[in-house]
Each structure stands twice: as C-alpha cells, then as structure tokens.
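Q: Got one fold?
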Amino acid sequence: MDTTVERVRQLISSTGMTQTAFAELVGIEKSKLSKSLKGTRKFSSLDLAMLAEAGGVTVDWLLGIDTETAMAARASVGSSAEKAVNKALQYATMRSDLVGLGYEQQWRLPDVDTLRGRWVDQGADLADQALKVVRAGGRSVSRNLASVIEDVFGVDVAVQDLGENFDGLAVSTSTVRLILVATSTNASRQRFTMAHELGHLLAHDDQEIHQDRDIHADENRYSESEVRANAFAAAFLMPEFELQEWLFEHGSEMDALCRLATDLIVSPSALAYRLWNLELIDAQAKDQLRQLSSREAARKVECSDLFARRMESAMVPKAPQSLLRDTFAAFEEGLITLRPYAQLLDADPRLLREELADNEVALMR
C-alpha cells in the first residue's frame, strides 16, 4: 500500500472518527478523501498540508520521509514551497471558515468557451474573454492588478514573502479561489505571475493548489497548462488592440517601446516577444528591446523614480482585501473574535482593539 495512504488511514484511526467526520474536520470533500484512500486520486499538496495540521503531524511524516531525507530535500530545494503552501493554507482556512458563517466568496469567473487550438492560442482567447469582463466593469489591468482581480473576478489575492525562488501559486477548491504571489523587487514579474495564476483559475485547470517556483522555467515549454497560462498573462497584460493603438500614435522607436513597457508595467523582454509574435515589430527591434531590464527601460524615458516606487510597493506584503473586509464584517456581527482580523493584518489583537475603540470614540464626537 502507498505509504501516504497508509499513514492517512493511521491518522483517521487514531482520532476514532469516521472517514466522513474526519473529512469534515480537515475540510476535504469526503468523495476526494475516499478516492485518495482507494488510490484512484492523488493527495494534493493542499490536502497534505490540511491533513498534517488537523492531525498534528508533519507533511514529511505523511509522505513517509525520514528526518535525514527531509533535511536533505529541504537543503536541495529550499523551504519556499512549504512556506507558500502554509500561507495559502492559512488564507484558505480563513476563507472556508467565513463561508461556514455565511460569507461566501463572491467569485465571478466567466463562462469559458471550450478551449481549442494551440496552447498559446487558448491562452490568448481566454485573455480576450477576461478583458471583456474587466472592461465591462470599467476597470483597467494597467493599474492595481490585485484590486482588479479581486473586484472583477472575486478571487482573493495576497502578496507575501515566500522565500527565494518561488513566484506564486493558485488555489482552487469548492469554497476558495486564491492567488498568492511573492514579494519582489521586480514589479513587472510580480504582475506577470499574478496574471499567470489567474490564467490557471480561469482555465479551470485541474488543481487544488498549483505551485509555480519559476513561471519562466524551461520545462514549462512542454506543459499545456503552463504555456496557456503564460500566453494568457501576456495577452491579458498587453492587449493587442492597445498595443496597436500605441504604436500608431507613438511609433516603434526604442524610446517609445521603453515608455510602453514602463506604462504597462511589463518587462521589456515580455513586451518584445509579445510585439514580435503579433508581427508589430521586426526581429532586430525584438532583440534590442529584450536585452533591456525594466530598470534600464524606465531610465531611458526618465521614469527612474516611478520605477523605484513600484519596486518599493512590490516588496510590501499585502493580505487579500476582500478577505479582510469579510473577516472584519464577521467580527462586527459578533460571529468571530478580533484575532483572525488581527492575524491578517499581522497586528497585536489587544493594540488593534484599542485602536478600533479610539476610532469609534472619535467618530462619536
């Protein structure tokens, strides 16, 4: 028998609970738990994290990894994945708890037509559908992308320190849609990752938690979902019609292209390939543009200060704003304590309570 299946069975047995009751305790659909225990479905990373937390064990133990092997594995790949999954689990658990209190996540994922054709074309078509929804809401993807995704699609979006060499992840369960990306000194890469993860969610990729250590890794060229998600991000952040309008008005000289990359908050390399694939620039211009960094492009058009502000903003951790609003609403309704809200803000509950009390007194004056 598979070691993980055997140990999950041991865990259930040790609680004295039925399989159904244990599934409810953990927060896993009982049908999924049943299939995993029968070996017809693999436990996802999120499953394992939730099982470990509920059972008071480690993921390594569930996987049957001994201590020395686990230490060696962490030394070789780092702890970023574990850190990211744990943070995602925290947000997912909070959201699931709120759903149980009547605060369902109001995601508005558009009905996606059957995706056909090449993987790249699927991503572009999906981006066109998503952009229609964004524009219908009077929003633009060229500004606060996290806010747009939360407000337009109803997906929780968080930015957190995930350690080195980890771009982000997407979570999709029956009650949670979450995008978690890493703090970064590279605002354009952070935005591309955010759009990439949205592409996974909109395509309904079969996943509970999808980890992206490096969205531009070479091996991703052979993965349908990764190619599609990257194509989605490129088309979503750099809409063809807007690119055509810009080039018609400003031309395709290098300074104009640098300005375009800076305005769209995308890397010169990403813009170069996007324009070239659309046959809007030639190979020479593509090669020249792709050699520039975002910092160099901003400097060329005298936007170094703007670049610095964006870099500073991209390094600031941010909890999902919709999750914050719902958590505070549940607190005000008396359904939960202040602690979950304070946890999201990384604040001391006692000091936060005092601050809220002071604000209430000030409003009454």
In short: The CA atoms of residues 332 and 338 lie 9 Å apart. The longest strand covers residues 177-182.
